[in-house]
Amino acid sequence: MHWADAFVRNLSGDQIFSTGISPSGPIHVGNMREILTGDILYKAAVDRGLMSRFMYLCDDLDPLRKVYPFLPDTYEEHVGKPLSRIPAPQGEGTYSEYFLRPFLETLDVINVSVEVVRTTDLYDRGVFAEAIDVVMRRKNDVARILEEISGRAVGKDWYPYNPLCSNCGRITKAKVEWYRFPEVGYRCQCGHEGVSDIRKAEGKMPWRVEWPAKWYALGVTVEPFGKDHGVKGGSYDTGKGIMEEIFGAKAPEPLIYEHIFLKGKGAMHSSTGVVIDAADMVKFAPPQILRFLVARSQPSRHIMFDPGAGLLNLIDEYEKYENLYASGGELDEDARRAYELSRLEQSTEKLSSIGFRHLVTLVQIYPREGDLLEALRRTGEGLDEITPVVRSNIDAIRRWLDRYAPDNVKFSLLEPHEKVVINDQERKLIAGFLESAGSIQWTPEAIHDMIHELIRNSGMQPKSGFAAFYRVLVGKERGPRLGYFLSTLGREFTMNRLSSAINM
RNA sequence: GGGUCCGUAGCUUAGCCAGGUAGAGCGAUGGACUCUUAAUCCAUAGGUCGGGGGUUCGAACCCCCUCGGACCCGCCA
Q1: pLDDT tens-digit profile of A133-181?
Q2: Which of A263, A347, A382, A494 is 20 to 30 A away from residue A442, measured at CA?
Q3: By three-state DSSP, how is residue A343 classified?
Q4: What was the ipTM of the complex prediction?
Q5: Tens digits of per-residue pLDDT, A315-357?
Q6: In this structure, are residues A221 and A11 in contact, taking their beta carbons and an 8 Å threshold?
Q7: CA-CA distances (angstroms) from residue A467 to A309, A421, A432, A460, A483?
Q8: Cβ contact A239:A232 at 8 Å
Q9: For A451 and B54, how far is CA from C1' in angstroms?
Q10: What is the structure's pLDDT at A217?
Q11: Measured in angstroms, what separates residue A154's CA from nucleotide B2's C1'?
């Protein structure tokens, strides 16, 4: 049984799935595992007939932790301020919205429909007021739970609330002096003394307390999170303790997932620069593939993501499932589910109408879209126009070839001065081609037939005969189907190139 | 130092929870097709299941140790 179905099978009643990703920087493919895992579970729950909601909590009241490598030095002055109160690195608006926007656009592209909730709004609307009041009144119990479960000492004058200083704007510097609902008195390191209203976004709970408060205030029943939170004594454990003892409620069912690694580079991490932007990935690969990457892998295993040759294999696999699914062919249970949970519901057009791998070749032969369409017509794909899926695949392939494609799928014409190695037999073969090339119809079929004929007459192996042409033209042993290739290159160009190559 | 997860063919992995002695895809090699959409089809090779020990009639699977990778033990999300 697919992991999502197996997980959901143990649930009963209405469900609220929740995830949270901090908008502190560009959201990368690694982060996407969180929200996709949530979405896949959510869809599996819906399929099972459970009334479900899926929420994404954007932690935009969290402080800017440091000046990240992608930020200008001037952001030093904003360290410690909430992300929703800092200007965007570029353009208008706030820091958090700046990074949130492309993320939300990407969610749309990959068919994740989630209720987006900003933590700042939750605080501002007083959604957390009750929870804050409870933890403030029982701060000693909360502190005890944190100490017992995490094994970490909590200071005497600790409060489960960090006020936002109304003077310096930092949420990390103020110390609580007193509490009387709904007000928290504080003194900030900047020298300011003030009062926060817990019904407003004038302060926030520390992470380990805020998490269970969210569960409680929103009624979260399922939450996937990275294995870093799942450690014994980690934030899930303390959250569970607080949830049960302080709020008297049941902690959500956890689903702990492993990280995504970039093949050959290590774990994806913004700080190390080992990162592929999520918004970026859906521009060089079909969006379904990002879903598929997560859906087909057990959450407990790390994912080795290879944006080069591995991506092509992944797409092959997806297309294979898609075709088997459509034709009612034999497809094992997990593969079927992985496919169902990966496809985009908003589009009925198959990804594989023209195989991605095939398109990779075509795009390189035919730089002009008109020629490409012509080629598709000619080879019986039955295409009258470039469909939306094909169009976006073409765009994706161009970017992919540019940035991630391995050399063995790329080809380009050799420069005229580049040296080619051919033996006498091969030279003779090409010379033979040149003798007749001027007089035949310059069509793919005619070219192809003639080359076949010549190779047969020469007594060479077909494979090595073709290889001679490829070596001369693209410097490789193999290449796109010769007839089409040469017809596209044009008679004059082909003949000039071949004759100069054999006369070098 | 303590803890968690992962380590299966060149690559990506299934199988581990409920022990019966390893399965797939890609790649490679060979072959077929009046031989190329780097297509398709068929076949072959390739695995000390990270290593060692234990339990068992039997271990990839359970237990212990060990090596390698990742992550946490920073009121940091």
Answers
A1: 999 999 999 999 988 888 777 888 889 999 999 999 999 999 999 999 9
A2: A382
A3: coil
A4: 0.84
A5: 988 988 888 888 777 778 888 899 999 988 766 777 777 788 8
A6: yes
A7: 23, 11, 15, 11, 14
A8: no
A9: 68
A10: 95
A11: 19
Separation of CA A57 and C1' B18 in angstroms? 38
Six token digits for residue A55: 């929420």
**Residue A257 forms beta bridges with which residues?**
A226
Q: Is the CB of A267 under 7 A from strand B?
A: yes
Nucleotides, chain B, CB distance < 7 Å: 2-7, 11-15, 25-26, 34-39, 69-77
Q: What is the pLDDT of residues A190-231, one digit of tens each?
A: 999 999 999 999 999 999 999 999 999 999 999 999 888 887
The continuous run of DSSP H or E covering A102 comes out as helix A95-109
Looking at residue A300, its amino acid is: S
- State both tokens at A388: 């939306």
Q: Token match 């609307």: residue?
A: A125
β partners of residue A255: A224
Mean pLDDT of chain A: 87
Length of chain A: 504
Instruction: Report whether A283 contacts A396 (CB < 8 A).
Output: yes
Tell me the C-alpha to C-alpha distance, in Å, between residue A149 and each of A146, A216, A231, A329.
Answer: 5, 19, 11, 52
Q: What angle do CA A458, A435, A443 make, to 5 degrees?
A: 95
The A 7-36 residues near strand B by Cβ under 7 Å are 20, 22
